[in-house]
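Weekly puzzle thread! Below is a chain. First person to post its structure in token form gets bragging rights.
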Amino acid sequence: MAFDGNFTGMIAKELETAIDSHVDKIYQPSADEIVILLRKKGFAERLMISAKSGMSRIHFTKLRPENPEKPPMFCMLFRKFFSGAKLTDVAQSGFERLIELFFEATNELGDRVARRIIVELIGNSSNIVLVDETGRIIDAVKRSDILLKKRLIQPGAIYSYPESQEKIDIRSTDIETVVKRIKENECILLSKAILSTIGGISPLVAGEIVYRSGLGDVVVSEIADISSLREELKNYRDRLTADPVPFMLIKDETPVDFSFFEITQFGGLYKTKTFDSFSELLDAFYSERAKKAQQSRITGEVTKLVNNLISRAEKRLCNRLKELEDCKNREDLRIKGELIKANISAIDPGATFVTVKNFYDEDLSDITIKLDPSLNAQNNAAKYFKDYKKKSVAAVTLNDLIDFDRAEIEYLETVLDNLSRCKTSSDLKEIREELSLSGYIKQSRNGSKSKKTASNFLEFESAEGYRIIVGKNNIQNDYLTTRMASKNDVWFHTKNIHGSHVVVFSGGADLSDETVVYAAKLAAKNSKAANSSNVPVDYTRIKYVKKPSGAKPGMVIYTDYNTVFVTP
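Winning reply:
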């Protein structure tokens, strides 16, 4: 993330608008997050402070995070020392990722005392430290090991600042001095040389400086003319003092990074978005990333569940195939029963076996039949007939169960394929609903059925102006094919490959080759063969597509089709 020292300074400047406000309320939504409600005349803002790994930050927030019913001990201590306190100043330590909030509070004797909240935004070492008027630590969201010799963060210890890096402050240093220091790092890449020389700069910004200079990220010693870098460093320093622009990079609807000026090094790979304030930027960035992280976690859980269901079904199928294989000899049981009946008079009581002529064999070969000595000949025959009937019935039942298992495995694999293309929480919700309706997971009491409107689908338009809709999961596929489409619209699906249903709403008109290929490519792209080439795609009129009674969601059969081969 580009939450570097210079970005921190800009946040600190934005927070200065809260000076002279009072602490109205303090909440602790999670173990390493604090929300403070600050108020003064004409001003009321919630201040979010997070020391969460990968999400450490400080900014005003419009969001209202859910708070625990009972406040944690740290929150109660926080309230004791800072409730009603007045914010008197906001400062950044040098160009480090550290912001101090200075407060004037009242102690137990009624005297006015100075207290501080120190927010350290240093990656995995981020922290929120409360410091009293004597400079001693009241408490911190992350305490250090008490045996640690270096920088103790424990209640009662004197607070000491993190060790600062010996880097140049470009805002107050001559550019020639900066360039000279960069050139001294002659054995490393230019971006790393910039990073190790200039304070308060992130890898993203260092890469942008290199890109704008046009030198390429090469080893410093290989650069003959560094004049373009000199000019770009001047431009960068000017941006630090000019009005900054809160700027976000977005890829596939997911926030990727942010900065205080436009990032151009990625070309058209990322979309860009600007905001009115840094707090608005950080609110949008981290809330969306939190949603994506939550969605990724839930998607992983659902994927694991479906994989377990597939493994279970495959194990059942394997066992049933073995049982069916065992039933293949059932005709031998009937023959042995018939031969015993035909030779009852030749079988002695208590015999353990009998050898007779097998009149079912063309050569009338001898066959030895095992007998139960506790049964007479007639009951031995009856036992063989009983075993024959039992295996015959089992074979019929097993064939039905095997077909069911295979259909279930095929269906669950389509769910896995849909999960792999799941992009939004709405997509995931529909798949969970599908699994719930199919009886694989418990349905939420408060859950409501998703509306299968056209807005939920992927929608495109052909060169001829025909509307093309792509289902994103099995429930959408069913709704699209059996309810939305008319009988003369054209249906597409990858041949013998799990994927989405695609319908061209042609109104019965014949499609051009261009539209057929375009729709087929959409079907291939939204299938398990998305990364393959020469993918076979079947297409036919909707009237030739049927959903068998009792079939799983998304399962259909079709006839009278053509096949086209495309590369997604």
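Puzzle host: Confirmed. Bonus trivia for everyone else. The CA atoms of residues 188 and 492 lie 54 Å apart.
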